[in-house]
## 1
Amino acid sequence: MENQLNPDNLPNNLPNLPTRRRFITITSGFIGSLILGDRALGATKPVAKKPVVKKPVVKKPVVKKPVAKATSTPAPSASPSASPSASASPTPPPNTAPDAPVIGKASATGATGATIAFTAPAKNGGAPITSFIATSNPGGIKVTLPQSDSGTFTFAGLTGGTAYTFTVVAVNSVGTSSASAASNEIKTLDVVPASAIAIKKSGVALTLADIEVGKTISATNSATNTNLFVARLGEDSFKGYPTSCTHQGGPLAIQGKTLDCPWHGSKFDAQSGAVTTGPAGSPLTPIKVAALNGALYII
Ligand code: FES
């Protein structure tokens, strides 16, 4: 300190003041420096760093926004000039004839009658069905049912003993359907003539089941109660023969495939009645036999 106040120790670069005045000036400056410290000399005070306090991060709860459902909004008309009729319902197709009916079971009900069941088609073509028509084959006999639902035809006037099939069509205001499939085949009952004579065996009507094709059996004429031979030549082919020899009337008997006469040894073919062994010179005279409704008759 003492050294600092010595005017001789003053720096040489002070302004050129009288020595006493420079001393005062220096001294005042020194004292000022003591009072004001470094601030008087323009020193900067170090800035105290504030501790960094990290604020806790508060997580905001995630709130899911409700997803808005897409709603269909009718698109505006592509063309403002489109006419209102553009969105109208399409024109329905024109009506047509019905679909074909479904054929059912056909049954014979006698010598001249039959019934045929059918089912109405699922599609009537857009117009109500007004009737169904069944047709016989053969004969082309037609029967009409004026109705719209399934049903059964009743035929009359068929020919006895004849095989038939039937088809059915449906009719509406537009037209007629295609024909159904053909029915099962039926056979009307045979008409038994009043003059027909039943053939019996052991007192019972002789039937097809009693005689095989190619066989000949002995039977009885129910009208005269006399015997005869009945030969089955085919499924629906029959012949009858008398039981007397054409030579002199001896009694014939079935011996395998021949009808033999014990008197003089003549033999006849059991199916055709032809002489196979003499002395008989004439074949047996055939008797007309037919199967009617499964039974055998002399006709
Ligand atoms: S009567 Fe039959 S062979 Fe003479």
Note: Confidence is low (pLDDT under 50) at residues 1-5, 14-47, 66-85.
## 2
Amino acid sequence: MARGLMKRTVCAKSIFELWGHGRSSGELYASLKSYPVDKMLPYLQSDSTYKIHIHTFNKTLTQAEKIKKIDALEFLPFNGKVNLKNPEHVFWILEDYGMDPNNVPEEPIDLYFGRWIADGQRELIESYSVKKRHFIGNTSMDACLSFIMANHGRVKPNDVVFDPFVGTGGLLISSAHFGAYVCGTDIDYNTIHGLGKASRKNQKWRGPDENIRANLRQYGLEKYYLDALVSDSSKTIWRKGMLFDVIITDPPYGIREATRRTGSQKETVKSAERSTENHIFISSSYHLSDIFFDLLKFAAEYLVMGGRLVYWLPIYRPEYVFLISASGEVERGYIIQRKLCLGKLVCL
Ligand SMILES: C[S@@+](CC[C@H](N)C(=O)[O-])C[C@H]1O[C@@H](n2cnc3c(N)ncnc32)[C@H](O)[C@@H]1O
């Protein structure tokens, strides 16, 4: 289970089987001495190899200090041979010196010793960084957050994942990384077709191949790209019976980009925009609470049973509260009527 978790998470660096913990080295040694020997022995056999690492948070130790701390563990029944290059078992001493770099204590606040089990996927944050991405926009989703969302959606190989506010497809990339087929829609013709002004500094216009497909190609994930369509998510285009496994999206909040939907002359039309040379569309404002209402309604109709909808919801902290449901579960939400609350949010 621990390895399965670490194969997906971008939030944790490593996971260990904890053998001991203390608030001083004395406490740590006492804790290690009380750890059942039969749980240790399988990893300390004479025909095995091992290595002990030491990692400190908020303090740098000299090599001599590190060796001293490792040597102090000689009371543990290590019978195997030390192998620094390719050990079978790796043990870690973790020392926590707090969070304040201007006030580092002489001795650690917490000490841990454990057997290393697995590393998390934090390197994905760097390898999928938006900074090095071919096609970006003003609101391209950060790589780390995209992976967190794909994990919340429990995206798995061969799923079909849909983003109704796809933008530059930042959220499609993390799902495709986990082997899902991805597609999306966006109201903005220029974004879907990779046209118009570039979002990068020192670049005026988007280049010929700046689009979502090229982004997926950049990461070797093109085979997972189904398509992206120009469409207003308030007007569903999907045939009844079409089902997605997961919907992952970052709706517009009206802060960094406008919230809008297509309108008609009959409705209160706010503006008529010229989107491309020969395409004019009329848009009216799209209230935040309506966006979320439409999104929930769409998910209720177009998700498979047990499918997941993952989205961002801007909140106003003073009014965002914990609710205890009748079954005793703790849920987060608004007590006041949703429309009223979101209305206030837009004003913020
Ligand atoms: C926060 S951005 C999404 C960014 C995207 N996750 C990415 O990584 O690039 C929201 C997107 O919603 C689009 N949008 C706004 N109103 C829309 C509507 N009514 N229907 C579909 N897309 C809409 C905007 O054009 C914008 O690209």
Note: Residues 137, 139-141, 164-165, 167-168, 170-171, 185-188, 191, 232-234, 250, 252, 257, 259-261, 286 surround S-adenosylmethionine (CB under 6 Å).
